Amino acid sequence: MVLVMFLIGLLAVAFIAALVAFVPAQSLPVVLIFAGAILFAQFFFSDKIATFAMGAREVQPNDSREAEALHAMVERLCAMADMPKPRVAIAETSVPNAFATGRNPNNAVICVTTGLLHNSTLNRDELEGVLAHELSHVAHRDVMVITIASFLGILAGLVARMAFWFGLGGDRRDNRDDGVPVQLIIMLVSVVTYAISFLLIRALSRYREFAADRAGALLTGQPMALASALGKITGDMAKIPQQDLRAAEPFNAFYFAPAFTRDSAMALLSTHPATEKRIEQLYKINAQLGGPAAPEVHGHRH
């Protein structure tokens, strides 16, 4: 995570230097104001945006027995983690999953889908493992970290669009490149910066999923329950209609386990590590806690 954040910072310095060199002084503040406004909205309204987009509704303990049980689990885990209890929401979707959002523990929401709540294959320990994973995201302020790290990509994408539509750089040409239009240079630099930033953010997201798995497993003291939940939820994804998975895909960055259609799983572009690697890490944590390590089959660990 430190390496990825360093690379994002290095990329940001290079991109800002390019902006200063090629974008006219009168246009630069406009670009920064637009990008800052987008960052502000993402940072302060991430919880409302995510829950609204998912069609989730906030629930109180007295709304139903289901809501009461969910609140009790979250409250117990928050007491164990010594952290404020987030708001609790339920989203109506058949995709078995959960997510947490909010810029800090005092403004967080943890959301569970009806597909997960009504999943008869998950026991209480496994559901607690999923909730502990999501609460770890809240405690680690992952939404804030990813939002700030994403600012460079937002800025680069915005600059590329403005260069295309409004001609940043005007009709000026760069004498060092035999008259190449500055507008084209700005667009190329922005597109390359956006692409690299996109891949780095995905890598950062995968590392933070590993961190949330580890923290969630240590909080409950039951890594194998979390590993079992991962395996069951990932397996259940194959039974979900493809149209439901496609509808859920845009929210994969939030989810406990990504909702992939059969033709969309690409490791480099994924916001989550491979399920097998996550389960392998949980086996190692289980061994550290005194439990059995991953079983060996024909000389190979599984």
From TrEMBL:
InterPro entries: HtpX_protease, Pept_M48_protease_HtpX, Peptidase_M48
Residues spanning the membrane: 28-45, 143-168, 180-201
Cofactor annotation remark: Binds 1 zinc ion per subunit.
UniProtKB keywords: Cell membrane, Hydrolase, Membrane, Metal-binding, Metalloprotease, Protease, Transmembrane, Transmembrane helix, Zinc
Coiled-coil regions, chain positions: none
Residue span, Peptidase M48 domain: 65-284
UniProt binding sites for Zn(2+): H133, H137, E209
One of the record's GO molecular function terms: metalloendopeptidase activity
GO-annotated biological processes: proteolysis
Record keyword Protease present: yes
Cofactor: Zn(2+)
Listed NCBIfam families: PRK02391.1
Protein name: Protease HtpX homolog
Source species of the chain: Actinospica durhamensis
